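TL;DR need structure tokens for one chain.
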Amino acid sequence: MAKNRKNIIRILAVISGLSGVVILAYIFLPILNYDLNSLKYASYLSPVPNNTPVVPAKNFNSTKASTWFTGGAQSRDFEATSISYYNITIPKLKIDSAVVSIGGEDLSKSLIQYPGTAMPGKNGNAVIFGHSILPQFYNPKDYLAIFSTLPSLEPGDEVTVNYDGVLYQYKIENKFEVSPTDLQVLEQDPSDSFLTLVTCVPPGHPLKPRRLIVRARLVPFGSKTNSF
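>> reply
TL;DR here they are.
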């Protein structure tokens, strides 16, 4: 009887141990997979240089847009607008008319356009932040998970913005990673209209040490790819 009890305890211990391994693999394999893919597509997804220390900001809260870049955006003057939000659609990610709050803070309620960046359709760089979690929990209707599969976007993929009743179509040109101290991705380029999508990577990483930058350019009106 005692022997059977010991055997049962051993079996339960093995099952418990295997369950722990499965849970850890479920959590960490997507993070490892992201890092491997970032090396595979290094031609347009460039990891943060190894000599650049990435130190998580104190009191970092991934649901608050203001904590994502140390130092914030440079102050610039843009055309004043009474519009407080607009919508964005990314077909490849099954994101349909997601709300972008202009100058908002809470990434659990919407995507956020970073303060001091250009409005969609205007010359400059409209920078949009979105939250991410483990990709297996991706939900394009949940703002806490909405950018979890952002790394899957590739050059040529389309993004449509509905701003003030006007539809603007952008095409992805490149993607890369930066550290939270690299403010260059927030700078404005008046030569054209750009759209920059930002999330923390690897998706699901507890410290979110890097920022993925996916950059798109406005498709000129009248072209075959911008006919609504």
